[in-house]
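Data availability (excerpt). The following record was deposited with the supplementary files.
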Amino acid sequence: MKNYLYLTKGFPRLGVDLFLDEVLKNVKKIRVLDAGAGDRRYAHYFKYCDYESCDHPEMDFNHQKNHTFYCDLNNIPRPENYYDLILCSQVLEHVLEPSKILQEFYRVLKPNCNLIITAPQCSGLHMEPYNYFNFLKYGLHYLCEKNNFKAIEIRPLGGIFFVLGKCLDQIFLVLLQKVNIPTPTKSYLHKIFLYLMTPFNLLLYIFDKLDLEKKWTPNYGLIAKKLSEKKA
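Predicted structure:
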């Protein structure tokens, strides 16, 4: 039932939400940084934690979330070995130097603690002009090795049928752009479209299990551990 409710929102973040629901549901009593937190949609997982959220001041498009602090992720205003967990969801595609961001995560994360990242493989332009990369699993593995993290798991968050569901959603949005109606009405029609598509999306969700290799995926989920010592 819970997965079915996720499908009412369509496929753009379906795999991401399911992945984070799995890996964060039992997190308690640790110090967490939600890096590039945006609307803090995952803050509810950390209600029993010392939770901090941050974002870049130019990227805070909501202007309604009071983050713990604002910064460039190249320069997080916290001491070394400060956090027990860092979450960075759908952010790396918006930074010019992802490797430098991981270097900074390494600095503020405690040894042998986890970094959780989600990042797109198949994603159209969004949040322009701050959209620079898509990622593949080998690239994520390389970023980990280069910056003294051990990749525990790099998981495709859905396969080709998830990609199809995402494309159908985007096709509807493109068609909506051609209609001369107010933006709030377009948003309302989009919500109706997603609800009407839910039974079809459920079929895509089921058929996606046939895609065993998942070489096409909307997003990847990464769990990495900070190595206690830097490689020479």
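Summary of structural features: The longest helix spans residues 183-207.
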